[in-house]
Design a protein that fits this description.
Layout lengths: L1 H23 L10 H23 L6 H6 L1 H16 L2 H13 L2 E5 L25 H12 L3 H6 E3 L5 E5 L2 E10 L11 E8 L5 E8 L11 H8 L4 E9 L5 E9 L8 E9 L5 E5 L13 H13 L4 H5 L6 E3 L4 E5 L2 E10 L5 E2 L1 E6 L5 E5 L2 E2 L1 H11 L6 E2 L3 E5 L2 E9 L5 E8 L6 E4 L2 H14 L11 E16 L2 E8 L5 E5 L14 E7 L5 E10 L1
Parallel strand pairs: 1-16, 25-27
Antiparallel strand pairs: 2-4, 3-4, 4-5, 5-6, 7-8, 8-9, 9-10, 11-13, 12-13, 13-15, 14-17, 15-16, 18-20, 19-20, 20-21, 21-22, 23-24, 23-26, 24-25, 26-27
Helix pairs in contact: 1-2, 2-4, 5-9
Amino acid sequence: MGKKIGGTLLLLVTAGFYWFLTWLLSLSWNLHFGITWVNIGIISIVVLVSIAIFVYRSDQELPAWLGAGVFIPIGIFVISGIISLINSPVFSAKKYYNYVAERVTVIADNEEQSAFPNLIGSDGDTSNLPLYGSPEAIKRAETEMGKYPALGSQFELLDEDLTSQSIKNSLSYVIPLQPKSVSKWDKDQGNNGYFIIDRNTGETKFIEHSLKYTTEAPFGSSAMRKLRSFDKHSGITDISPEVDDNGVFHYVATTYDQSVMGSFKKVTGILDMNAETGEITKYGVDEIPSYVDRVYPEEFFSDYISYYGKYKHGFWNSKIGQKEVQEATESFSVVYVDGVCYYYTGWTSTGKHESSNGIIMMNSRTGEIKLYQTYGIAESKAQGVAEGKVQEKKYSAGYPLLLKVAGEETYFSIMRDQNQNLVGYAFVSYKDYTKVAVGENLKEAQNMYIKALASGSTSEVFDDSVYETKEGEIDRISNEVVEGTTLYYVQLKGSNQMYSFYSKLEPKSVFAKAGDKISIKYIKTEAEVIAATEVDLKQ
C-alpha cells in the first residue's frame, strides 16, 4: 500500500515539477503549431517515466504496453519535426517572400521623384532630429536622479527597458526605475516612476508614477509572467514600455501566430498592461490605441526584411547562386517621421557592406515597408569617414541617419569620445564620402559641411537653381573664433535671416561694419543660420 502511495506521489510531484518549470520559465501552452506538439511530447515522457518508476518500485514487471508507449513521444517529435521542416524556409521560401513582398512599396529614384526618405520629416522640421543617443539619455537620467536622494538609495535605472518612442509628438527615451535588490521591492508600492528624455533637446523629466509591475520585478509582480498567464493561447514577444499622452505607463507585448508557416510570425494584436494597476487589455491589429508605437517588434523587422532580401528566388539561391540576394546593413535605428515611428536601416547586395542600394523602413505600428532605391555609401562607411576626419582624437561615430542638408543627401551622426561622452556631430555626404565635416555643436558642424559641399561642388552636384544671392546693407555683424578661424554672422537690413561665413571667403570682412554693402551667395536651405558659399563686401 505504501509503495502505491509513494508511486502516486512521485507521479504528482513529477507533473507538478513540469508545471512549475513552465510557470517559472514563462513558457506557455501556445496552440500555434510546433509548441503544442513539443508540450504533448514532454508530457508523454513525464507520464510514461512516472508510471515506469511507479511500477518498478512496486516490484511488478514492466508491462509490454508501457515499453511500446515510449514510441508515442518519439513519434510525436518526429512528426512535429517533419511538418516544421516542410513549413520552414527550406521548402516554403517563396511563401515567406510573398507574404513580406505584399507589404513592401518600392520607391525608385528617377526624374519624377527622389527615392530619399528625409528623416527630419516632410516639412523640414528639425525638432525631432535625435541629438542625444541612449548613452546620453542614461547619463542625463542618472544626473536627474541625484535631485531625489530617496530614489538613489533604493532604486536604479532599468537600462534594459530603455526604449525610444513618440510622446506628445516628440521623440523621447523612456527609462523606468527598479529596486536595487529583491529585498527592496514593495509589491504594493512597486517602483517610484520613470524618466523621459527628449532626444532633440535633452530635456529630462522624472515622472512619479507607482509601477507595481516591471520586467525585472520578482514573483507575481513580473510583467511578462502576468501577461503570459493572461493569454496562454498566443505566441507572445518580449515586452516594451509605452507611455500614453496622460503619462500612464504601460507594458505592451505583441501577440502572434505561427500556424500558417512554421517559423514565420504573423502579428495578431497586442496585450496592453497598465503597469500600475496590472489591468490587461487584448487588442486586435485593427484596434491598437494611438499611443502604442511598437506593434511590430525589432525582431520582426529583422526577420521580415531578411525573408524579403533572401528568398525571392528560393531558399537554395540564397545559399549558392545568390541571384538578386539583398540584405540589411549592419545595424538599424528607430526614427520618427511626420508623426510615425519607423525602423530604419540601409539595404545592400549581399557581401557588399561599404555601399548601399537603398534605404528600407518599416512602420512599427502597421508593418508596412518602404524600400527607397537610392545609391550611396553604407552607414558603416560613413561612420568610418567621420571617425577618420578626427582620428587623432579617437572619437567614435554613432549609427547615422539620412537627411537632407542644403539639398544634399547626407548622413548625420553623434560623435563620442572614448568615455562615451558626447563631443559633437558629423555630416557625411551619402553620394560623395569626401564631403565630410565634424563640429563640436550642430550649428558649427552644419556650417562646415555646407562649406565643404560648396568648396568642391561641380555642376553634377549643384546646379544654379540650388543657389540664391542676397544683396543689401549690413544691419548687424558679429564674429567668433572656431578652431583658429574667424566665423562671421551677418544680418541684412529688413530681414531676420542670419548668414554665416568664414573669413577666408572674404578677407576684407575684418573691416566690415553696419551700413556696408554686401552680396551673399548661398545654397537654398531652411536653416536658422545659412552658411554662405561666396561673399563680396562692397565698401
